[in-house]
Amino acid sequence: MSVGRGTAGYLMHRARLIFQDGAELTVSVEAGQTLLESALAVDAPVRYDCCTGSCGSCVVQCVDGTTVVDSTHQVPVNADELAEGLRPACLTRLSSDAAFELPYSLNAPASMPAKHSAQIVELRRAAPSVALLTLKLDRADGLAFQSGQYVRLAAPGVGEARAYSIASTAAELPLIELMIRLVPDGKMSRWVQEIAKVGDRVKLQVPLGSFGLDDRARRHVFVAGGTGLAPVLSMIRSLRGRARPALLCFGCTRRQELFYEQELAALAAAMPELEVRIAVMEGADGTLRSGTAVSLLQREDFDAETVCYLCGPPPMVDAARKALTAHGVASKAIRAERFQPGG
Ligand SMILES: Cc1cc2nc3c(=O)[nH]c(=O)nc-3n(C[C@H](O)[C@H](O)[C@H](O)COP(=O)(O)OP(=O)(O)OC[C@H]3O[C@@H](n4cnc5c(N)ncnc54)[C@H](O)[C@@H]3O)c2cc1C
User: Fold this and answer.
1) How confident is the model at residue 10 (pLDDT cuts 50, 70, 90)?
2) Where is 253: in which H helix or E strand?
3) Where are the alpha helices (H) located in the chain, listed in sequence order?
4) Which of 6, 114, 179, 247 has the CB geometry, 3.0–4.6 Å to 230, for a possible disulfide?
5) Integer CA distances (angstroms), 218 to 70, 303, 337, in order
6) By the 8 A CB rule, do 317 and 336 touch?
7) CATH number of the domain within which 179 lies
């Protein structure tokens, strides 16, 4: 372990950042500084968004060293994930030199987050509590995002921006498709439901987040609850033509809330390597299974070269992680995005 002294005489540690493509950067972390602050101080291209522990964009895997996580904030990982080494960089301080794996490549084709303006070109209700919103960016030149990333949407008259995962792929730019769950008394939900119409203008920050495909995997398993389908759909669409087997387990609460069924059937028909399983908790009929997305998983769905991607409300993601662990899937082979309320 090497311990240095910062310019103000503080104890300093070194953090090795190991990117998915094997590229590495080492940054100095002064006492009191978070891992994220120290990375940003030297303009390291790390992904982050809220800096308060709610979005989960800056979560990294600690593979060496001792760290302290500030538990006075909301923490975007659960106790099991903390025990397995997942660390939100915005809340993590170092007690020794340490090494962290980042779930994206240093040379990723994603641009830095930037502000954009856009117009609503389509808005339709896919289920009683799900709206599909298609936006056309005024300018998309220079913008590149990775499937799995999200936008922060600001709408006129809605005080706070909200995070929404992108369901479309970069190939469809300047169009961006979002899937929005309409929650009771939600500020953005109310705007989408009662005010928004085709032609309205909105502002976006994009691209954000570190959820995305692990290109090293030979097989991909996706577990999505409700509008958690959005980032997963973008990832599956981007797999077209890459001949990697993929499984999608998709669940909704009730039959009436199920959406995108026909589109998923069409996608599966166009992608022989994709298997789609759908479940609803209430109202299952002949073609649908009864249960949650998690209940659709089977032990034989995984091998040593499988990577699993979980997305949806935090309780669903936690349940899916438990089920995967019970099926013998290693923590390092699990990626998750939680749709934290107020995200
Ligand atoms: C990284 C990230 C990506 C996200 N992507 C998506 C996405 O693709 N699609 C999507 O639909 N959402 C997504 N979310 C959630 C989204 O950002 C908003 O939190 C959600 O749309 C509610 O916003 P609102 O303004 O309508 O509700 P708010 O005004 O924030 O909430 C109003 C009330 O509803 C409660 N509430 C909020 N959300 C829920 C919920 N899900 N279930 C029950 N009660 C709730 C709140 O606790 C509060 O009491 C994402 C969140 C994160 C962090």
Assistant:
1) low
2) strand 246-254
3) 35-41, 79-83, 187-190, 229-238, 261-270, 314-326
4) 179
5) 36, 9, 21
6) yes
7) 2.40.30.10
Paired sense of beta strands 219-225 and 306-312, if any? parallel
Q: Which two tokens stand for residue 91?
A: 């809340």
Domain ranges, residue 235: 219-338
Residue count of the chain? 343
Can you give the CATH number for the domain in which 33 is found? 3.10.20.30
Domain final residue pick, 43, 69, 101? 101
Q: For a pocket test of ligand 1, which of 162, 229, 250, 309 has the largest count of ligand atoms closer than 8 A to its C-beta?
A: 162
How is residue 279 written in tokens?
């479940």
Report pLDDT for 340: 85
Give me the number of domains the chain comprises: 3
One domain, residues 284 and 327: yes
Token couple for 171: 């190939």
pLDDT per position as a tens digit, 106-139: 988 788 899 999 999 999 999 999 999 999 999 9
Looking at the fold, whether 204 and 225 belong to one and the same domain comes out as no
Beta carbons of 214 and 305 less than 8 angstroms apart: no
Whole-number Å distance, alpha carbon 180 to ligand 1 midpoint, is 9
Tell me how far the alpha carbon of residue 339 lies from the centroid of ligand 1, in angstroms.
7
By alpha-carbon position, which residue is closest to atom 27 of ligand 1?
186
